[in-house]
Amino acid sequence: MDIQLKRGLLEICVLAAIKNEDSYGYKIIKDMKPYVSMSESTLYPILRRLENASCLTVCPVEHDGRLRKYYHITELGLDRIKDFAEEWEEIMSIYNYIMGKE
Fold this sequence. Notes:
By secondary structure, the protein is α+β, with helices and mostly antiparallel strands.
């Protein structure tokens, strides 16, 4: 798969994983596991990119004597999911064309 396409899809998946509740790295990976396999070495750069793009915020919380980073989706992150959903129809049209289904 094209690396840029995969990168964009993984970013949307991460945003979707925290859409309904704040979460932390290990739980994000666990929640996504039935749908997409992702390692910590893939997840954390995505989280940093999304934070830098103001799609999420980070809040450190103490848990068992250690700080755990909880990620919270922002309005910009929610908009990004919405934009993806609107573009999905065009993506499926391209897929159908490539697969000869139209």
